[in-house]
Structures are given as structure tokens and as C-alpha cells.
Amino acid sequence: MEIPVIDFSKLDGEERSATMALLHQACEKWGFFMIENHGIDTNLMDNVKQLVNQHYEANMKKRFYESELPMSLEKKGNITNTDWETTFFVWHRPSSNIYEIQGLSKDLCKAVDDYIDQLIKLAENLSELMCENLGLEKSYIKEAFSGSKGPCVGTKVAIYPQCPRPDLVKGLREHTDAGGIILLLQDEQVPGLEFFKDGHWVNIPPSKNNRLFVNNGDQIEILSNGMYKSIQHRVMAEKDGNRLSIATFYNPAGEAIISPAPKLLYPSHLRFQDYLNLYSKTKFAEKGPRFESAKTLANGH
Prior knowledge:
The chain is of the alpha+beta class and 301 residues long. It is built from eight helices and eleven strands. A seven-stranded mixed sheet has the order 1-2-9-6-11-4-3. A four-stranded antiparallel sheet has the order 5-10-7-8, with no helix packed on it. Strand 1, helix 1 and strand 2 form a beta-alpha-beta unit. The relative contact order is 0.16. Keywords: Ethylene biosynthesis, Iron, Metal-binding, Oxidoreductase, Vitamin C. Pfam families: 2OG-FeII_Oxy, DIOX_N. Residues 149-252 form the Fe2OG dioxygenase domain. InterPro entries: DIOX_N, IPNS-like_FE2OG_OXY, IPNS-like_sf, Oxoglu/Fe-dep_dioxygenase_dom, Plant_2OG-oxidoreductases.
């Protein structure tokens, strides 16, 4: 099963229509896809990954293996309520806390800040492309996500360490993401990420050539009235190698009110006879404008 790959370099040329159609299909049928030629500095991406791995080795690895989880794995066997991961979370917008997190080097903080500045622009661009495909104003998602200070952006940095018994524990249990658009900078060598599609778990391969992996969160499914899907996924523990995951969430602000976009809703609370009267006049015209007129009728206008 081949995961959709969106080549952003094709959005400015003759292949724009086909690329937009592929993006729409990926959001609608898959809920996840890869992005390449996204414009983010690849040297910066490599630097972020290298610095995070160095931080793990220096500050997180020993503490993880001395924690209760590895010990309980040896004693209790199968573990169902804990994840085999070590993480820290960084807030970026509306304000950043990265320099307040103990143990992070200045080089790591600076690299992450520079990366996030570029990534937010990509997330906003992606949101505009989604809006275009949904027939919404291009700023609709950004405005829907904005509180008084704009959308909320944060990053979960996770390492899934080598696991001696991957048959007994998950790296991260099955879930969907609560927020909006998730952009994942992930390991180039170690697998483990899986998404559920058509009754099967699909293995997401490591990201070669600095591709970014993207998935929809629950709020995109709500805003799109179910057209764009938020898909269940998990991380499997691996016996060989540590898996790196840097997942950035482009989310609504805490006070943002999320509802299906009215333009995407079907007419409701409409007498069938009133619809038939409208239909008789527009039977051979496009259905979309007829539905819009039906919505107006349902609202008493």
C-alpha cells in the first residue's frame, strides 16, 4: 500500500491541479501523507535531529532505563497501560517555553526555534491548500483555530528506545490526535509508526530525504464535517535501534470554538415538499447551488 506523497514543487506549475487533487484524496481517503520539496532547510532539519539525539544520549537515556517501566517489563510481562517512550514537550505559539526546559542546550533551542519558524509557514500554507480543496476561504482554518493570539503550536519530542521485549509493550498506544494539522519529522532508519486504514495497520516507513509526514487531527475532521479524516495510529516498540519522533501540532487556541464549516453542511430541518419545489426548478443544474438555496430556505429566508 503506497502512501500518498505530495510534491510541493508541483504546486506552482502545470501539475498544480493534479497535485491538489492528490492532496484532497490523501486528506479524504487516507488522513495522512508525505510531503517532499516542502521548502524547509534540510540542513536545519538534520541539525535538529542530531541535537535531539545527542540530548537523549546525554540526558534522557540513563534516566529512562533506570525508571520503573523497564523494571516492570521484566517482572510483570505484558504491559497495556504504559507507553515505551521518553519525551518532552515544547510550546512555540502563542509563546515559547523552550528556554525554560531544563537540560536543553542553547544550540538545540536555537535550531528548534529556527525550524519551527519555517514549519509554521508550511502548516499555514497547507491549511490554505486544504481550504481551497474544501471550497472555503483560504484563511478559514487559520481563523477558526485562532484565539486572541492566533493558533496554538507545540512540539512533542519523543524517543522510542530499544526495547528488549517489543512483544510485551507498545511504543505508543492506539489513538487519534486531538488537534489540527500534525507535521512529523521522524527517524530515517528505525520504523515503528503505523496507521489504521481499511481494516489493516499500515507501516509508515522512515522518512528518507527529509520528507515530512503529515496527518489530520480530530479538529480537521470536525471542521470539514467529516470529509477529511483523523485516523487512529500507534507506535510499535522496536528491538533494534531508537526511533526519533519530532511531532509539531498546528492546533486551535484553547478558547477557539470549532464547528463544522457551515458551507460544508448539508441542508437540515427542511420540509421535503419545499425541497421538491426547489428541485423542480433546478433539476438539471448543479446540485451544490441547490443545496445552498435549500440551506437558506431551512433558515427561514
